[in-house]
Amino acid sequence: MRVVTNLVALCLILSACTTHTETNKAAVSFYYWRTIFKLTANERYALAQNGVSKLYVRYFDVALQKGQPVPLSPITFDEAPGDQHIIPVVYIRNEVMLQPALDVDDLVDKVLSYIQQINSMQNIVSDEIQIDCDWTLNSKEVYFKFIDLLKKKSNRKLSATIRLHQVKYFRNTGVPAVERGVLMYYNMGRIAPDSSNSIYDRETAQLYTASLKSYPLPLDIALPVFTWGIHVRNNTVIGLLNKVDETSFQEDGHFKMKEPPFFEVNDDIVKMGYYFEKGDRIKIESVRPDDLEEMIEDLSEAMTRQPAEIIFYDLDDFNLKHYQHENQFFQKISRTL
Amino acid sequence: MRTNSFKKLAVLCSLVAFGTYGILFACADYFWGYDYDSNFTPETYVDESYSPLFFAPQDVFYSIGFESDYTSRFNQDVVTEWSEYLKGKFTTKELSFLLLNDSADVRVKEMYSAVQKKQKLPIPYARLSGADAQVKGFVEFLYYAKEIEISSTTPLNSWNYEETQPAPVVSPKTIAQVEKFYNETTDAFLKNRYWFQTMKAYFYSSNKQGLLTFFEKTKSSVPQNVLYYRGLSYVAGVYYKKKDYATSNYLYSVVFDKCPALRTVTAYNYHPQEQKDFQASLALAKTPEEKSGLWALFGYYANEKTAIREIYKLNPASEHLDYLLTRLVNKEEVRLNDMEFKSATAYKQTIKEQMNKDALQLVSSIAKEEKTDKPHLWNLAAGYLNILAGNHTQALQLIEKADKKGPKSELTSNQIRLLKLINTLSATTKMDEKAEGKLLPELDWLYHIKDTEDEVFRYRNALGWSKRYIASLYAGQQNIVFAELFDANTTFYQTASNAEAMKVFLHKANKSPWERLAEGIYGITLSDIYEYQAVMSAYAGKLDEAITLMEQSAEGKNVELYGNPFNGKIKDCHDCDHAAPQKIKYTKLAFLKKMREMQSYVDKGQDVYNNSLLLGNAYYNMTYFGNARVVYYNDIINQYGNYIDKYYQPILLSCTTANQYYEKAFNAAANAEQKAKCVYMMAKCERNAFYTKEYHSKNDFWGEPEVAFQAWNGFKKLKTEYSNTRYYKEVINECGYFSKYAGN
Fold first, then answer.
1. Which structural domain, as residue segments, surrounds residue B554?
2. Can you give the pTM of this predicted structure?
């Protein structure tokens, strides 16, 4: 039997609203999420074109193994980051924060030391750390303690990713004590076999954007620029096809786009390391340039404070090719916010 | 049953969009165990070496999750082999330390140095002579094996970043040394091991081509043992690096076919990129066995039916067929067992229509031919698929055949019994004494199976399905009580006559064994029903009836409330009320009796103000917003959380009754202080009605409502008419909202 007792507050003081005074335009930056740091010529060109000077680089994940937090898939630098200012990003699985025996103090030391080891090897100086964790009601207390200790021990600026539901229900989910949050404006829906788009859906987004005005933390925005395929069999999602888009199937006779966004498989086939069976469907989920413009338009209406940055997820040749119709595209749309 | 995996959403929860193809499978919030949708335990007859490859849509590998034995898989074998070779010169403990423990490196170097300098071996091995050919051979081998190992193992998940960086490659000098040992030694045991070390050294060097050359030169003279196939895996790995997927996959399939210990790892590494790769691999396969190996992996990655057909043509006795068959059956049943159903007839019809006829035909025909190595497994599978197809006589024959011919164990007898039960029940279209008599011992067994941690037997789907199936038959026969007993429905007690019918059944003395079985699996007790009825009567204001019913609830009547249910505070704070000292702790029954006492005073016109106000508070506290939610905590009502079910919203979220008593108190109030209090309490009710309308009744309600402020009528009245009361000042002090409204 689950017994829930809680405080129904009749009397809470409303927080004061801040006014919109900033006039500077949002800067453009990117997330770098591959495990080996090496930029292609095209990626460098995109950074230069769009005046990007800051990269948010995923350094490592933290997960549990045998009940202990461990770093997973740490980044390896095949080349020095050059002129780019690097912000280490650490993704911490919520399971870590839910581990009853977690030594938070020790974890903070380990995370900081690990970041420092990577930085020293590459002579990187970072004045900020970003933490990515989809904390829940059950883990918020530990997560916030982690953030507080990290702040104290790192003596650096801290930012944290914030999911849409954490904005809407912030009075319950809480607000981490960081300098700024980064609103993840994507992955808003379920990965489903129907025609919905799990990456971005305006209607879903609008269920949450009204709450942005009262969110107490300054927010930057993370926008999606990735594309993937959803592999569907018997109306059930059976896999996620990374880095595929329509062109991956258009020229192949085994696939036919009968009704966008679905390709249908005509015959059993092994392709790109995946097996497709006759009758399977592949849904391409992507974010078009005009979707990005729409997101920025909606966000600029919904937010009272202008974000300092828009961070695109993620920097990769495969993703960039979908936005090369216009020079400086990322910079241009960011300026409209 | 294995249900210990706890899997968290891996894709949607993170910025991480990287996921491999497999990651999505690990996306379920919780993992309920392999048998929540399966009746067919693959372990029953299939060799253990295939176990990780059993169907496990939520895992990369069945049961183990991920392959994690890369560095330890052969530890025991290595120690045993050396122990036999050295004929007891080293103890097993010493060998384990020297061969397997990283901290032995220093000791090994000392021993090697002593052997080279023809000195005494260091303690504790001083008893041994370095001149002994076997001891010398072992020490030299250890020295080089340890050196190569540095390059072959990178500690994962270490908080030391440097350690996780790629290890240095094996030097040409070391390769030359071990290759020289291989060429020169005449000891077959050592030669075999130096061959493997040379292969390994090349693989972890920058000279991958050297490995291919060495392998080509030596392959015909190497015994085809586990070391050979481990070496062959390195060859496959080099071809993979060269992007020659056809050769790589072909070689992995050979290892898969011949070396059971490496099945999981080769299945993981085998990975055709395009269709042409698979065709090319097939062209490289020389024998039916090799072709079977390739198809066995194709079946794992792609299509079990095609693989079974092809392997069966090549070699009907192939062992690979076994695991492919279990995957085919598990896939098929998981798809079908997911189905919701209300009527047994409709269920059977849909299953029959939706089941894969190809699979049924393929499995039945192979079972019939009896050419496979394990005809009992094929009979069992064909029996099960025939149950799904509605061919119950045939199904029974096949299952009995499997039972007769197959090996015997607790698991096989459980599996056979379960499928027979499912067959019997599936064939049942009417619940009567005959059916009940037939099913009773079987269901009694099924419903009382004891869970053990490592048990693999899959029975839970049958547990739930059998109840739903029987309930649907009873429902079709208008036997509402038995339909409810077998498959409880949340709306059952919302019809008063249902509750009465269930009470009659539960009160019945001398129940039959079948009735006792049904009662035993039902989660609701007589006490719950009386409590439910009492609580519903109380909300309806029928206190006498509520008391009579509550008195009959053996457990419910004694449940204590957390706080004083007659409190009426300015701030609603449950935790504060629960923690506050209480002279009287009210049970549910005592609470109702006290309410009735107050009601009788109100009815008689005695101290109407106080009694009405306290009754108002009592009815207020009984709602979701009050401090006595425990009143409605009951397994039939089942509203323990923040979201209140639509049916119960008008009951548990409504402050109408409370408000009526506050009005009554207001009308009976003797002074402004008393009136101010009533007015404020009515404002609370008004606010709750607003919360209910705006938040709680919405389908996307999640947690507590966001605090919204309105100028409640009660606030207006308090400000305009009672601003000179002491209570007004108390409210100003305690309630920021009101303070804000009042302009303070």
1. 542-741
2. 0.83
